[in-house]
Amino acid sequence: MQAKVLVSLLLLFPLSVRGANPIPVTVASLESLLFYPARIAPASIVTINDSKISAEVSAVIERIPVEVGQVVEPDTPMVELRQSDIVLAIREAETTMKSLNAQNQQANEQLQRVRSLARKQSVTAELLSKTETDVKVTAAELAGQQIRVEKLRQELNKTVARAPFNAIVVERIANVGELAMPGTPLVRVMDATNVEVVAELQPYDVPSLMQSNGAQFVTKNKDYAVHLKRIIPVIDERERSQEVRLEFDGDRALIGTSGHLSWRENSPYLPADFLVRRNGRLGVFVVLDHAAVFTEFPKAEEGRPALNILPLDSTVINDGRFVIREGQPIKIITENLDKPAADGDTGNNSRAVTVKPPVAVD
């Protein structure tokens, strides 16, 4: 269908064009010209968790057993606070709890005796009610004290600040001997496991990254294979860029490393210098049905590679493309650009071939 339309268009060309002298041209297969452009964007390595571990209780710092740069496992003690005051408070609370427990037991025993007498109608209903109330009061006081003891035990556990994840110690904020209050920063740690590549892309580059077969985080010393994790659905108001996050496929770069994200388009492009302008339109000349046919690339931009829209087996006019006119006879001066000369062949592989447009048939 496409060939028939092009032939029909050729038949409409002025006779002055069809009868013009042939223009010598060279041709090339479109497939040999196409390439997959590389895209780059600034990128860096960040950790998901960059945390300042703070004190949860008020106590003096007794020991900081970790050093800057040390990698620690989850639940590793990092800062130890003085426990003596809380230990004494627990002992005091436990003593009170024992006393309340004894009172509750006594109240229960008293209730049993009063109920026995009440069945014999030896005590008043008022005394029975008061005894039942005493049991409830002592039980409530005992339960409240048990909660207090449990809270103190939790506070005792909080005197040791532990690593919340596989962490890198990057800063010791507090020092031994200082009084830590709830919320006082003690150490700063970074998550050594959950590491991501953060890249800032122009919004028009995001679709090509999504369709690419893979990407690399490139540094001065090494390239790292990465894959797309998520796209942030927000455009930065100042930079007019869009953030994407990627994960490493294997080896990982150090947190804080700067570099760039590199990937290739998944669709082939035609080099910008092969595009010519005709009547305000950008496109290429192809050889089709023995004629030079101009094919417009509607989305092409001056000086930029153009997304290919032609069949891969198309033949593109190379030398001569700037002077050729649509429908003008061409003389192909290269027999076969894709096939190199055989070893030892010193002959001339070029031959002139005049190709004219088809003549209309009445």
| Structural class based on helices, strands and sheet pairing | alpha+beta
User: Helix-strand pattern, N to C?
Assistant: HHEEHEEEEEHHEEEEEHEEEEEEEEEEEE
Mean pLDDT: 85
Q: Give the oligomeric state of the chains in this entry, treating copies of one chain as homo and distinct chains as hetero.
A: single chain
Report on the structure:
- With 362 residues, the chain is α+β, with helices and mostly antiparallel strands.
- The protein folds into three domains: 121 residues, no CATH class; 152 residues, OB fold (Dihydrolipoamide Acetyltransferase, E2P); 76 residues.
- Helices cover 26% and strands 32% of the residues.
- It is built from six helices and 24 strands.
- It has a six-stranded antiparallel barrel. Strands 4-11-9-6 form a four-stranded antiparallel β-sheet, with no helix packed on it.
- β18 and β19 form a beta hairpin.
